[in-house]
Amino acid sequence: MRTQKRCMGYVAIVVDDYDRAIEYYTEKLGFTVVEDTPQAGKRWVVVTPNPESDCNLLLARASNDSQQVFIGNQCGGRVFLFLHTDDFWRDYAAMKAAGVHFCEEPRQEEYGTVVVFEDLYGNRWDLYQNK
Fold first, then answer.
1. Cα–Cα distance, 56 to 112 (Å, whole number)
2. DSSP annotation string for 49-97
3. In a 3-state reduction of DSSP, which class is residue 7?
4. Which of 3, 12, 38, 110 could share a disulfide with 58, CB 3.0–4.6 Å?
């Protein structure tokens, strides 16, 4: 019997402008642009924290008023995305130096080190490293 690998491929995040979002995710969070392909009336823009990752972030520009209301509030104010790291303090320091807005001071939890930050739009993320 053949087994099939299944994984999340993309998580879409609603943005107001492709270039502004690319600049933030690459310059502030250290992501890499994987793809930026023009399509009819839009672009297929994919960024990733690690080019070897199976799950990447799809930057989806809001195309109407009903989509625009979700920019920065895709999860009702809860933490929406979780950025794993193998070196918390390295990434925290780099992100802080780049001007990323942290909502709290880093803390130790039973599962590891974590801090909440907000992206360009106000979506909340966890930066964390497992113990």
1. 23
2. SSTT-S-EEEEEE--SHHHHTTTT-TTTTSEEEEEE-S-HHHHHHHHHH
3. coil
4. 12
The pTM is what?
0.91
DSSP annotation of 20 reads H
How far is C-alpha 23 from the geometric centre of its chain's CA atoms? 13
Pull the structure tokens for residue 124. Answer: 């909340």
User: What tens digit of pLDDT does each residue of 108-119 get?
Assistant: 999 999 999 999
Nearest by Cα to 102 from 70, 124, 72, 86: 124
Residue whose structure tokens are 């039973």 = 110
